[in-house]
């Protein structure tokens, strides 16, 4: 079985002391690829550094990188940090995005729940990042929380269609899901799916997501799935396996068949053709 953790933050300092071991655990759990998502200039640069350091292109005697997952990355400014964004930062992202390991733009969007940045800043820089992704022909990684329809309004107005994208950590309604699907986007499912109470509505909705439009993710080090949440607070890519198992269970599908579909979905989403011929 091949699994792709389509959204992680393993550049986080909580992985610093056991990064290699964490990647080994992921590979042993069938996770063969990981998207390391940028959320501001510093994390984007660190994600690119890690992706290059652990690139299979660096394989040489003494390295065992082919026994670790392939790493890819994205560039972008999270809505929490929108008030710190600028045209200079967008231009820096454009330069960074030209590197081979960068496969998407994001995480970006709107978050009107915690309001770490004013609405006007979030909307301005979300729109600017959509334009940049369109310019570079990159798929997008979206963050949406409690935007009361404004997120969809901006998507429709800004017209990001060409390369598509994914609504990361989907937690909306069935109606919102349908609108995302109509716009051509994928739906990202996290460990929330496995949580008895918190994941109840998501499990009801996930049954209706077309198989060819689902990707799975950890959002590590956050959102640890059951049963691992009872053992450790920190989520990590190996645990995306539990999301896969629960998704197959609620859809009533063979786990290996669904895993193969979702692997192909993720490669298609991010335009990663080089993985499809590798077991």
Automatic annotation (TrEMBL):
UniProt keyword list: Hydrolase, Metal-binding
Broad enzyme group: hydrolase
GO molecular function ontology, one term from the record: metal ion binding
Pfam family name, one: TatD_DNase
EC nos: 3.1.21.-
Amino-acid positions noted as binding a divalent metal cation 1 in the UniProt annotation, renumbered to this chain: 7, 9, 107, 219
Keyword Metal-binding: yes
Xref: Gene3D superfamilies: Metal-dependent hydrolases
Ligand binding (a divalent metal cation 2): 143, 168
Keyword Metal-binding: yes
Domain of life: Bacteria
Family classification: Belongs to the metallo-dependent hydrolases superfamily. TatD-type hydrolase family.
Record-given protein name: TatD1
Species name: Desulfamplus magnetovallimortis
Lineage: Bacteria, Pseudomonadati, Thermodesulfobacteriota, Desulfobacteria, Desulfobacterales
